[in-house]
Amino acid sequence: MLPALKQRCLISETAEMAMSSILKADDIKKALDAFKAADTFDHKKFFEMVGLKAKSADDVKKAFLVLDADNSGFIEEEELKFVLKGFAADGRDLTDKETKAFLQAADKDGDGKIGVDEFAALVHE
């Protein structure tokens, strides 16, 4: 296995464990299955299906921290592509079209990345 791929797998597994402490594994699996096909991802439906929309602001922040893989305080476009892997290691990559649509929906200040407040607003939309 390539070192970068191995590192991404470890990050995905760690993220999956952290996310399953916030959300129910069955809900995550159902949501991932619903958006298995490319270009079907809908962030509003996904956040509702995994149960994140109904969670407290603190839990949403915890989810944000899991998805912020480089701990920069933002979810950048490159991290957004792998957002489903943050919920489960076998989650698919978002297509470029899905990634850009997701970023556009969340990035209210136009800086090209998603901050914790933007993420929380998107989840609770």
Structure description:
- Helices cover 57% and strands 5% of the residues.
- It has a single domain (12-124), classed as EF-hand (Recoverin, domain 1), CATH 1.10.238.10.
- It is globular, with a radius of gyration of 13 Å.
- The protein has a two-stranded antiparallel sheet.
- Helix 2 (25-34) runs antiparallel to helix 3 (43-50).
- By secondary structure, the chain is mainly α.
Helices, strands, pairings?
Layout: H1 3-20, H2 25-34, H3 43-50, H4 57-67, E1 74-76, H5 77-81, H6 96-106, E2 113-115, H7 116-123
Antiparallel strand pairs: 1-2
Helix pairs in contact: 2-3, 4-7
Organism: Astyanax mexicanus
Function: In muscle, parvalbumin is thought to be involved in relaxation after contraction. It binds two calcium ions.
Pfam families: EF-hand_7 (PF13499)
Which properties best describe this structure?
repeat, 125 residues, EF_hand_dom, Recoverin, domain 1, 2 strands, mainly alpha, 7 helices, disordered N terminus, EF-hand-dom_pair, calcium ion binding, muscle protein
- Shape, per Cα inertia axes: globular
The main sheet comes to: 2 strands, antiparallel
CATH topology: Recoverin, domain 1
Q: In order across it, which strands form the biggest sheet? A: 1-2
Number of helices: 7
Helix percent reads 55-70%
Mean model confidence by pLDDT: 88
Detail the poorly predicted runs: 1-11
Residues in β-strands, percent:
under 5%
Corresponding CATH superfamily: EF-hand
Look at the structure and give the CATH class.
Mainly Alpha
Count of discrete domains: 1
Number of strands: 2
Rounded to an integer in angstroms, the radius of gyration calculated over CA atoms is 13 Å
- Name the CATH architecture: Orthogonal Bundle
Helix/strand-derived class? Answer: mainly alpha
